[in-house]
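Researcher: Please translate sequence to structure tokens.
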Amino acid sequence: MIKKFIPLFFILLSCYISSAQLVINEIMYNPPESGEDKTEFIEIMNITKANISLSGFSFTSGIQMNFSDTIIKSGAYLVITKDKEAFADHYGFEALEWDNGSLSDVDGKLILRNPQGNIVDIVIYGNSHPWPSRANGYGYSLELCDPKKNNNKYQYWQESRTSTGRVIENKILYASPGIQNEISCDNPADHIVDLQSFSFVPKTLVINEGESVRWTQQNG
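Model: Translation complete:
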């Protein structure tokens, strides 16, 4: 009886590990548009060596989304958004539209569950220090520096450095939905300050003792 139990245990464990390797890899929780923030999005990455079916998976916090038989291939990305038409207008490809809800602009919690109701991934993010401030309405998404890092720790999230060339309300969109993030986990800065038209962005910033700042100059 023990001999029969052990293989079954490892089969179940293997299935759980496989399904658990879906990672919330990028979040645009407060795009620079006024109104309903239709271009909010979440990117999920499959970091396993096998294709994963999302049938029965769901987001149960932050937004509501019940997936049908969608397949994420090994190493591939899936993007879900609040409004698929608005998203396609700005990013040039179609994403899945979630069922209901909006991403919080203050303190958000995203929970992805498997068909058994177990938590596959969870991210609790904020809109101010120590979280990157320019993701809060300045046109930048939050990106995970390495999909194998603990994405529930702020240290591994940074503002995107990938310019889309698209502009919303005079702000350039920096995001990389559906493709690899360009940021690095090496020596991330605590704050990033832009010089735009002889003004600092963000205009108010508190730098605590021991923190680092990276200064950049953005065109436009």
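Researcher: Any highlights?
Model: Helices lie at 2-20, 84-91.
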